[in-house]
Amino acid sequence: MSTFRASPGFTDQWEHFDFDVTDGVATVTLNRPEKLNALTFDVYADLRDLLAELPHRGDARVLVLTGEGRGFCSGGDVEEIIGELQKMETKELLEFTRMTGAVVKALRECPLPVIAAVNGIAAGAGSVIALASDFRLLARSAKFAFLFTKVGLAGADMGSAYLLPRLVGLGRATELLILGDKVDSARAEAIGLATQVVEDEDLPATAAALARRLADGPALAYSTTKVLLTREQDMDLGSSIELEAMTQALLMTSKDHQEFYAAWSAGRTPTWTGR
Known about the structure:
Strand content: 15-25%
Number of helices: 11
Order of helices and strands: EEHEEHHEEHEEHHEHEHHHH
Helix content: 40-55%
Shape: globular
Number of strands: 10
Structural class: alpha/beta
């Protein structure tokens, strides 16, 4: 648990998805397979709140996001969300859209590496959640669909117009967000949307191996790298160099850096502590 935790206790049982922490690996499994893990108001709220808690728990070094069954996440539930939105006034609608955006903001600002193990369709909000993750491991059968325009809404939603061009370029992002067509795993890999594509049956093991590597590695170095990658998106070169200089000088005082030198001197493998 974080040293700077004022009130004791974290949430270990989440009602609207499965959550587990084992040996430094936190796993969120969306568990509405009959709806291709479509999101509800409560799922959004729980994801937002979990991501706020997770960096302070002290027992997780990496987060894996996946879905139960044959889909990763098909986006917002048409009946439970879109139908209800029709009844809301502007103030309530803005509260909702800010909540969905808060999930993506929390994913990018969470200092833990996040792995999206995309085991099927990732559509709408599901595609943006995967987009906001640090690693996107795709099953061969997986597909992306940024389908917001297909329901009469802006293709720019939940930060997609900020994140996607930085990943695949403005031209491809324009195509994907305006047309909203499905992107299969082969094309996702070709344009840089996928970190890796594996056979469907190999996805759980591949995600577990990457999560284990991250959990066992120099966690402070990993988390700092993610934070700087996020912060430097909108910095000029001089500001980035100065921020990196200050950060690197700080990490040169870390126990993990000292452990590297001790292990190198002794001819052994480092034992990382994330400190």
